[in-house]
Amino acid sequence: MTGPDGCFGDGRFGDGRLGDGAFLAAAIEQARLAESSGNLPVGAVVVLEGRIVGRGHNQVYRPRHDPTRHAEIVALSAIPEELRDRFREMTVYTTLEPCVMCAGALFLHHVRRVVFGSSDERAGAESLFGRLPRTFQGEAERVAWEGPVAPDECDPLRERLFELVAERREGRRGSGGR
Ligand SMILES: [Zn+2]
Question: How far is the C-alpha of 151 from the C-alpha of 142, rounded, in Å?
Answer without folding.
Answer: 24
